[in-house]
Amino acid sequence: MALLDFFLSRNKNTAHVAKERLQIIVAEQRKFKNEPDYLPQLKREILSVICKYVNIDPHMVTIQLEQKNEDISVLELNIILPD
């Protein structure tokens, strides 16, 4: 019976892992759903301008657009500069 229990418990773990992965994917899609269409292009252009003046790793730049209300949007740019 131990062998049978091993295989049955493994299926439960696999299903649990798949459920967690699906939740992460859905959360990521919700995160990007509210972004305007031009935001990825804006990110690339801002990064290219910054790279002209400072040698940075593109992964050290985060850009977020936050909707305060119907009339106000805030573009937040965080850059970790090299030493």
Helix content: 55-70%
Q: Using only CA atoms, what is the Rg? A: 21 Å
Biggest β-sheet: strands ordered side by side in the sheet: 1-2
Order of helices and strands: HHEE
Low-pLDDT stretches: none
Strand content: 15-25%
Global structural class: alpha+beta
How does this model look, in words?
- The structure is a single chain.
- The protein is built from 2 helices and 2 strands.
- The chain has helices at 2-33, 39-53; strands at residues 61-67, 73-79.
- By secondary structure, the protein is of the alpha+beta class.
- The protein has a two-stranded antiparallel sheet with strand order 1-2.
- The relative contact order is 0.10.
Structure at a glance:
This protein is an alpha+beta fold and 83 residues long. Helices cover 57% and strands 17% of the residues.
SSE order and pairing:
Blueprint: H1 2-33, H2 39-53, E1 61-67, E2 73-79
Antiparallel strand pairs: 1-2
Q: How would you describe this structure in keywords?
A:
2 strands; two-stranded antiparallel ribbon; 83 residues; 57% helix; elongated; alpha+beta
